[in-house]
């Protein structure tokens, strides 16, 4: 371990690239977490509606997000191959992709009502779900632009600018969230509508900041970030060939999770609220580890650009050790201190009379979350490494098969036969991530990814 600390693609380099991304994702986690806390304090109905609506919105956004973020792999491989003049061209293919994607997401406004009718949730919760979903999907375009522009920095291993921009977004979003949900001074009390508007503001600020930071004369000289703005059919085709499976993979993953949440909502309001809280707490472990997932993609991408697959494998192991250490610590916190974490979501006044039952069930669910986080660390890192090497078709297939086979079909059957226990759906979720982790470890060790090339020779 001491040798790995200072070695090339070792712990130090992993932390140098990954820690700003972890902090960046942690800021996003804090935004999501405080949003749920404010809504939980506001009303149990708003809390119950927030997670299904947010997951449904991100379900549609996830496909476009999974494609757009793959620009980071192209940037990392061009950087590793010392083809800096191609970075701007790759970036612009992602931006051209964002335009129709944002319009498609905005058009989802018209299907919100019928979509949430399928959920079968109580009318009061369904109405709030529709409103929240519509606002979040309208902000999808700016979100995708911000993600794409951030790849200019993260793909080159310069992750501090990404961290600073996301910290600024969190610094604005959190107080705005509180004021718009609860009302403050001249700002009216908007409840879940305010939560959605604050989130869209948090989506838009990074896009504006990154635009000012990327399109500078200095970056134009080295990376052609302005002059390479034309559409390049061959490069766009290659980007979509590797990026689209990543989008489908992300969509299928979110589809399975969304289906899980909607099926839990059919069991009862207490079960839905407790599940929402448990998953919200899980974001404290999950989203920061996504930072290490991106770090694995960057380091593997740069090594593959240099045609150094052994360096890519070494980097993956370094990132895995760090991610496992963090997830194990968070899992221990969830088991040892469930009470204080759950109390953050207590609803104020008489509306919180049912919170005792929610808290008791939440304590049990956090034990599932603790096991889930450790296994998930393995899956997250290896998926990031495989994507960085261009093995996106495999990750798409394994997530699709696992999602349908472990989440969708079993949860549908449990609901069909009237199972009223919360344990069945959560065991399915745990099985899903276990299958995913094992499959990705086996695939990586077989080394198929070593012969894949995503950039021109």
From TrEMBL:
Subcellular location: Cell membrane
Keywords assigned: Antiport, Cell membrane, Ion transport, Membrane, Transmembrane, Transmembrane helix, Transport
GO CC, one annotated term: plasma membrane
GO molecular function list: antiporter activity; xenobiotic transmembrane transporter activity
GO biological process terms, semicolon-separated: monoatomic ion transport
CDD domains with a match to the protein in the record: MATE_like_7
Sequence intervals crossing the membrane: 21-39, 51-75, 87-111, 131-152, 164-184, 190-216, 239-265, 277-300, 312-337, 357-382, 394-417, 423-444
Membrane topology qualifier: Multi-pass membrane protein
Signal peptide (UniProt feature, chain positions): none
Pfam families: MatE
Domain of life of the organism encoding this protein: Bacteria
InterPro entries cross-referenced by the UniProt entry: MATE_fam, MATE_MdtK, MdtK-like
Name of the featured protein: Multidrug-efflux transporter
């Amino acid at each position: 371990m001491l040798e790995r600390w200072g070695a090339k693609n070792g712990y130090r380099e992993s932390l140098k690239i990954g820690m700003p991304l972890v902090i960046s994702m942690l800021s996003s986690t804090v935004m999501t977490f405080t949003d749920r806390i404010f809504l939980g304090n506001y009303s149990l109905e708003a809390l119950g509606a927030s997670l299904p609506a947010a997951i449904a919105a991100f379900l549609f956004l996830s496909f476009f997000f999974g494609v757009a973020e793959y620009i980071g792999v192209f940037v990392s491989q061009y950087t590793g191959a010392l083809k800096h003049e191609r970075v701007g061209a790759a970036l612009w293919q992602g931006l051209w992709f964002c335009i129709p994607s944002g319009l498609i997401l905005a058009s989802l406004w018209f299907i919100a009502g019928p979509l949430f009718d399928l959920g079968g949730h109580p009318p009061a919760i369904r109405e709030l779900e529709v409103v929240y979903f519509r606002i979040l999907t309208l902000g999808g375009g700016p979100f995708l632009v911000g993600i794409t522009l951030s790849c200019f920095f993260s793909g080159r291993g310069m992750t501090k600018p990404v961290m600073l921009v996301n910290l600024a977004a969190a610094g604005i979003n959190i107080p705005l969230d509180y004021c718009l949900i609860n009302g403050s001074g001249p700002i009216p009390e908007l409840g879940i509508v305010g939560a959605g508007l604050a989130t869209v503001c948090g989506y838009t600020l990074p896009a504006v900041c990154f635009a000012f930071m990327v399109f500078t004369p200095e970056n134009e000289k080295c990376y052609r970030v302005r002059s390479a703005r034309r559409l390049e059919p061959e490069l766009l085709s290659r980007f979509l060939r590797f990026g689209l499976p990543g989008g489908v993979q992300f969509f299928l993953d979110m589809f399975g999770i969304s289906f899980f949440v909607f099926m839990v909502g059919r069991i009862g309001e207490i079960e839905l609220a407790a599940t929402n809280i448990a998953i919200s707490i899980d974001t404290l472990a999950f989203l920061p580890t996504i930072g290490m997932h991106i770090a694995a993609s960057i380091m593997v991408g740069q090594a593959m650009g240099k045609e150094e697959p052994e360096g890519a494998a070494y980097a993956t192991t370094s990132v895995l050790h760090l991610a496992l250490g963090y997830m194990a610590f968070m899992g221990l916190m969830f088991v040892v201190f469930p009470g204080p974490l759950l109390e953050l979501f207590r609803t104020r006044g008489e509306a919180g009379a049912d919170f005792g039952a929610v808290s008791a069930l939440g304590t049990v669910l956090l034990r599932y979350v603790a096991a889930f986080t450790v296994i998930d660390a393995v899956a997250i890192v290896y998926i990031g490494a495989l994507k960085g090497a261009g093995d996106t078709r495999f990750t798409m297939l394994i997530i699709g098969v696992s999602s349908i086979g472990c989440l969708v079909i079993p949860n549908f059957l449990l609901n069909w036969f009237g199972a009223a226990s919360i344990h069945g759906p959560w065991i399915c979720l745990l099985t899903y991530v276990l299958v995913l982790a094992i499959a990705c470890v086996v695939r990586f060790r077989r080394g198929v990814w070593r012969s894949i090339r995503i950039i021109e020779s």
